[in-house]
Amino acid sequence: MAKESKAKKKISFPMIARYNYVIQYFVEVGLEQEYVMQPRLTRRTMELGAKYAPDMVCTPFKTILGSMIESLEAGADTLMMSMGYCRLGYYGELAQQILKDLGYEFDYVNFAEYTTGKNKDYLKALKRLCPDIRPVRAGKAGMNALKMVEYIDEIEDLYYQNCGFETEKGAYKKALNRFYSDMSHARSMRAIQEGYRRCLNAFRNIPVDKGISPLRVGLVGEYFTIMDDFSNLDLEQTLADMGVEVHRWMNLSHRNLHYPGEKNLNVRIRDLCRYEMGPTSTANIWQAREYARKGFDGIIHLKSAGCTPEIDVMPVLQRIGEEEKIPILYLTYDAQTANAGLLTRIEAFYDMIEMRKQMK
After folding, report:
1. N or C: which end of the chain has fewer CB within 10 A?
2. Are 342 and 317 in contact (CB under 8 A)?
3. In terms of Cα–Cα distance, which of 243, 259, 260, 225 is closest to 46?
4. Residue 1 confidence (pLDDT) above 70
5. Considering only CA atoms, which of 102, 86, 84 is closest in space to residue 14?
């Protein structure tokens, strides 16, 4: 009699930007388990997290907690939490305890517990997700997943730098949505590459009119808030719709896969920052000055309320603004931040940098 196959785990991970397609690919192709894709982040997600999280905790934690609840509601029986910088290493334990206190039953794999730098410890974590893991298959899927990360970041960079200047309204968004759909359904490296090339070709065939010298704005800020469009109230699209070329260095490819390292960056900004200030601080200071010296028209700094490292960065950014003669807008997001008040500030910033450009 044939041996019955073990039931697959139903695994989920908190929603962040569009990177859940990457995790879905790795779980389903590399670990051969089922991935539960929870709904995109909404106000309900935030309200759920804010309801059960400590009041003074940062906004990303509330969003993550709400997303975990929605994962469990969608049928997940196993949750993953990444290792994290800042307080995220502890947030995994806190989120787990809150969910247990709420009565949810689930398996929980917190990668912070396995972050020793040794591959065998990461393998232990993966074995908790898939006891019968095939290391070669998982390794190959992991490499493919990392390539998908790079493709997502490259495509989004191209999108926000060009979509505000399309002559055929909606063409860029249509191509981008097709790309996201391709990534969500990809189950091989060939499918990943085909989706990437299809989107690149579509972008190249969309006519754009940037004029002689379009407005360019660089974004810096806290890791989660700056990458997730729900968390920053779709700031990049808002700016693009105004006719701005939007640049954002902070993404998984730059910060995690090809990061030059704190020591290397500190050498470049040693006149501004002598000591390591936090998870993304050094990179934000370095990149802000890069934007200024490359002739950008303005910089926007994003952070969640109470984010200590990014609060510490602000005086340094003010110095960069004064020395490099570049305007900087500071935006702080919490669970109560609304579109209306934010849009007013963004429009005022846009008017100001446009007038400055005309006067040059």
Report:
1. N
2. no
3. 225
4. no
5. 84
> Is residue 352 exposed (0-12), middle (13-18) or buried (19+ Cβ within 10 Å)?
middle
CB 22 within 8 A of CB 152: yes
What secondary structure letter does DSSP report for 2?
A: P
Token readout for 198 is 């299809």
Residue 161 φ then ψ, to 5°: -80, -15
Sheet-wide strand order for 244-248 = 244-248, 215-221, 298-304, 328-333
Beta carbons of 266 and 276 less than 8 angstroms apart: yes
| DSSP state letter for 163 | G
Minimal CA–CA distance to 64: which of 114, 16, 27, 22? 16
Residue 215 to residue 85: CA distance in whole angstroms: 33
Helix or strand or coil: residue 282? helix
Distance CA 311, CA 322 (A): 18
* 8 Å CB contact between 195 and 183: yes
Mean pLDDT, all residues of the chain: 93
Record the tokens describing residue 286, joined without a space: 């370095």
- The pTM (predicted TM-score) of the whole model is 0.94
Q: pLDDT tens across 240-255, in order?
A: 999 999 999 999 999 9
